[in-house]
Every structure is written in C-alpha cells, then in structure tokens.
Amino acid sequence: MAMRDYELMYIIRPTVADDELTGATEKVDNIITNLGGTVTEKNPWGKRRLAYPIDKHEDGYYIVSKLQLDGARSHDLEEQLRISEDVIRHILIV
Q: What is the pLDDT of residues 4-34, one digit of tens each?
C-alpha cells in the first residue's frame, strides 16, 4: 500500500445549517479514514460566493484538507464524494 499525499478542496452546500457544518466535514473525514487514509490538516475557508451557480446555489462553504491515502483508493474517495448529499463540488490534487 503506497500512501500518497493529496490536497482535497470541497464545497459544502450553503443550505447546511452552521451547527451541522462540522458534522458534514466530519462525514468527509470519515470517508477518508474508512478508506484507510488520514487527514493531516483541515482548513475551512468559510462561506464564499461561487464563480457560477451549482444546483441553483450561489455560494457554499469551502474546505481544503491535506490527506494521505493509498493511490489505488483515490477513485473510491472521489466516487463517494460524488454521491454525497452535502458536497456539491470537489477536486482531489496529488
């Protein structure tokens, strides 16, 4: 198992209540740990205006995480983020 360093930026839908935002980011962290990875750093950027509307949302909560994950599991991570109800966009960078 070759662990690689990744940077994950994702946007949480703006309709998530402030008190539920922590739970939504913990769900993403749990997806990573369930795939055998570790989150080494999490940097919430807060609520920001989107460059273009996504699913009729004008803004969203931006989070940037640094993580370590087996390279073979990165596709599984992206697949689970794609079907997540709270995450409206994500990008995973090596």
A: 999 999 999 999 998 899 999 999 999 999 9
Nearest to 8 by CA among 77, 86, 85, 66: 66
Q: Which residues pair with 64 in a beta bridge?
A: 9, 43
Could you report the per-residue pLDDT of 67-91, keeping only the tens digit for each? Answer: 999 989 999 999 999 999 999 999 9
Q: What is the 3-state secondary structure (H, E, C) of 1-18?
A: CCEEEEEEEEEECCCCCH
3-state secondary structure of 19: helix
For residue 89, the one-letter residue type is R
Q: Which residues, other chains included, contact 30 with Cβ-Cβ below 8 Å and sequence gap of 6+? A: none
Count, residues in the chain: 94
DSSP class per residue in 63-85: EEEEEEEEGGGHHHHHHHHHH-S
